[in-house]
Amino acid sequence: DVKVTQSSRYLVKRTGEKVFLECVQDMDHENMFWYRQDPGLGLRLIYFSYDVKMKEKGDIPEGYSVSREKKERFSLILESASTNQTSMYLCASSLLAGALYYEQYFGPGTRLTVT
Amino acid sequence: AQSVTQLDSHVSVSEGTPVLLRCNYSSSYSPSLFWYVQHPNKGLQLLLKYTSAATLVKGINGFEAEFKKSETSFHLTKPSAHMSDAAEYFCVVSDRTAHAGGTSYGKLTFGQGTILTVHP
């Protein structure tokens, strides 16, 4: 059974703190993604990675960075957390090109509150 | 550029009655289309996917969707709602997108979501 896990379900941080969100997948997928989910806006792509140490910006990368040192692990970093980064963060993974349908598998999400 | 519009932000039905969640899309290419479901405090789960084979797609839990190219629609239906169907549903379109690495990946664009409420 495919599995994407995220390190925390709920997280509360203070403004200005550095925040790390971790994601691990056990499906040997090449692609990994970070989204944020806000009511009425659906999911928006922050960053994605198509290989170890490779990354590309998504639609809303400002204020975020990522790290992928191993194939199975993809971290999202908030360098200096701000209140407008309070949101649900979802990690996903998928097979690389050559997989016809690009179905993504999602983790359970981390609800981050910045106070 | 691709986009997705879910025409209803909330849908309310009675248990045992049909469900219709509406979705329109725009895409430059032949897209793949998906419906995902998210139950409270859970991650997203794939309900079904359209990938240019049969236009009527059957998914899990009795859901199905019909791809209509002329109407650019991909509406989700179920003949009889169950209480456990109460959740948020996302219509998603995927185009191939090339990136600097030279390979392509499926960029997903999500609709805004439709919250389905099922009354006893």
What does this structure look like?
The complex is a heterodimer of chains A (115) and B (120). Chain A is built from no helices and 11 strands. Chain A is mainly β and 115 residues long. Chain A has one domain: Immunoglobulin-like (Sandwich). In chain A, the strands form 2 sheets. In chain A, strands 2, 4, 5, 6, 9, 10 and 11 form a 7-stranded mixed sheet that branches. Chain A has a 4-stranded antiparallel sheet with strand order 1-3-8-7, with no helix packed on it. In chain B, strands 2, 5, 6, 10, 11 and 12 form a 6-stranded mixed sheet that branches. A 4-stranded antiparallel sheet of chain B has the order 3-9-8-7, with no helix packed on it. A two-stranded antiparallel ribbon of chain B has the order 1-4. Chain B has one domain: Immunoglobulins (Immunoglobulin-like, Sandwich), CATH 2.60.40. Chain B is 0% helix and 57% strand. Chain B has 120 residues and is an all-beta fold.
Notable characteristics:
heterodimer; A: 115 residues; mainly beta; Immunoglobulin-like; 7-stranded mixed β-sheet; 4-stranded antiparallel β-sheet; globular; B: 120 residues; 6-stranded mixed β-sheet; 57% strand
